[in-house]
Design brief:
ten-stranded mixed beta sheet, seven-stranded parallel beta sheet, 462 residues, alpha/beta, 13 helices
């Protein structure tokens, strides 16, 4: 490892990484960016479809002669000794690989957990992209990493790391944060000329949004009317809840309600929306995490899956000046929204890899702790024998609605959402019931052990 390597972070002693899930969309963005950075090099690329990885790398412009498809430990060592990038199908081969940091991006709760644990035990740093793993075992993996003297960290470019860093930066400034969060993945783009609202490739005729483009005096009422107007569109995703669970672990913030608020809101309204109820907003308490659906016109810039923090203002003149400069301040002047309207996926991840390996620095000043539980409620009556299949782009579980519970309010036997993925129900679960560990079998016992190991661990500062 190159933890103590001095010098220019872009040129001194290349940082090498192994990448699991190397054929996916995130992997492409990281591999593309790595071509621009002489100080960062992919050492091992692991995917169940290694031929697809080779094709991806060729498409990006990697030298085919520098990529070696290997199937055993000897071949991997030979490839690395020759300075080649090894391409493998089996994560077990990573145990024999020479690299600095694992970028875990499989999206598989069990496989990702095992790959990360093995990397840490072999004294490799880990940048966790698989939020599914992080939401169940992140606290325990961080403890294990500190025990072995390496870094475990979420990766910049995904919202959890970006939001944790934004939270820490604003707290360092002494500002009182009321709420933090992100936008959903896809904007609601409303065209007043046609009355159509578009979300990615879906369109809905909702002309009533034209009269709802401005917040009325009753903010919750306006938000409720907007939600009714776009009700046929699926706005919430398991991925959003999962990311907020990771943010909760790194900040101590908790959900205000288990289904989250998911307001349909314009960026300029966020300071009014995420105010406490007594000040006209939607929040029942301060210190919360949430997700909003961006409402914008076709010509307006997207929030781009970015992150925000709503803070209380202090000196009125300071915030009046900032409002004049275009910053988002609530109509009553008591709240302001500070935001970053972007997340850049693997384009930004090199910042995490270089900081972890060169400086031994993870994302976030706090040691992660269990502050929220990502769980699941039966969305319909589920009979015994049902397999809780996980699938789709957002890794939803069929028949199960994700919910996010403050840890202090979650029953002790609650099954983490991604522990339940691909498990089988051993008894009937009625609609609306939380799925418990006793309801399922066929889950990964090591993943459950990691979940239970962190149950009573107190939060601390690094």
């Amino acid at each position: 490892m190159n933890v103590d390597t001095p010098g220019d972070p872009l040129t001194a002693g290349p940082v090498t990484y192994a990448l699991t899930g190397a054929g996916g969309g995130f992997a492409r963005t990281l591999l593309a960016q790595s071509l621009l950075l002489p100080g960062l090099h992919p050492a091992v690329l692991c995917d169940l479809d290694p031929d697809a990885v080779l094709a991806l790398c060729a498409d990006l412009g990697y030298d085919p002669a520098a990529l070696t498809l290997v199937s055993d430990a000897d071949g991997l060592r030979e490839a690395r000794a020759a300075g080649h990038t090894a391409v493998v199908a089996d994560t077990a081969l990573l145990a024999d690989a020479a690299y600095d940091i694992l970028v875990e991006a499989t999206g598989s709760p069990s496989a990702g957990f095992r790959a990360a644990r093995e990397a840490i035990e072999n004294r490799h740093h880990v940048a966790m992209v698989s939020k599914e793993v992080d939401s169940v075992a992140g606290v325990e993996l961080d403890r294990l990493a500190r025990l072995h003297g390496v870094v475990y960290t979420p990766a910049a470019g995904d919202q959890p790391a970006n939001l944790i860093e934004w939270h820490d930066r604003i707290r360092t400034l002494g500002l009182e944060i009321v709420a933090i969060g992100k936008s959903g993945e896809y904007d609601l783009v409303f065209d007043p000329a046609t009355g159509e609202v578009r979300q990615l490739d879906e369109s809905l005729h909702a002309p009533e949004l034209g009269a709802l483009l401005r917040l009325g005096d009753d903010v919750p009422a306006t938000l409720a009317a907007r939600a009714r107007a776009v009700a046929p569109l699926k706005r919430a995703a398991a991925a959003d809840y999962c990311e907020m669970a990771v943010v909760a672990a790194g900040t101590g913030f908790v959900p205000d309600r288990e289904a989250l608020h998911y307001p349909v809101a314009r960026t300029a309204e966020l300071a009014d929306v995420y105010a406490l109820r007594e000040d006209g907003g939607v929040l029942g308490r301060a210190g919360v995490i949430d997700v909003f659906s961006v409402l914008r016109l076709p010509e307006e810039a997207s929030f781009a899956g970015g992150v925000f923090a709503v803070v209380r203002t202090h000196d009125p003149v300071t915030w009046s000046v900032l409002a004049q400069k275009g910053h988002v301040v609530s109509r009553n002047g008591r709240y302001a929204c500070l935001y970053l309207p972007y997340h850049l996926m693997g384009v930004e991840t090199p910042l995490t890899l270089l900081a972890a390996v060169r400086d031994g620095v993870p994302t976030g000043v706090a040691v992660p702790g269990r502050h929220a539980v990502l769980a699941g409620r039966a969305a319909r009556d589920l009979p015994a024998g049902t397999v809780l299949a996980m699938g789709g782009h957002h890794h939803e579980i069929d028949g199960v609605a994700p919910v996010l519970l403050p840890a202090a309010e979650a029953p002790s036997d609650t099954a983490p959402f991604y522990l339940a993925a691909h498990s089988r129900l051993v008894r009937d679960v009625p609609r609306g019931a939380l799925i418990t560990v006793a309801d399922i079998d066929g889950y990964d016992p090591d993943l459950l052990a990691a979940w239970r190991a962190d149950a009573d661990r107190a939060p601390q500062t690094r």
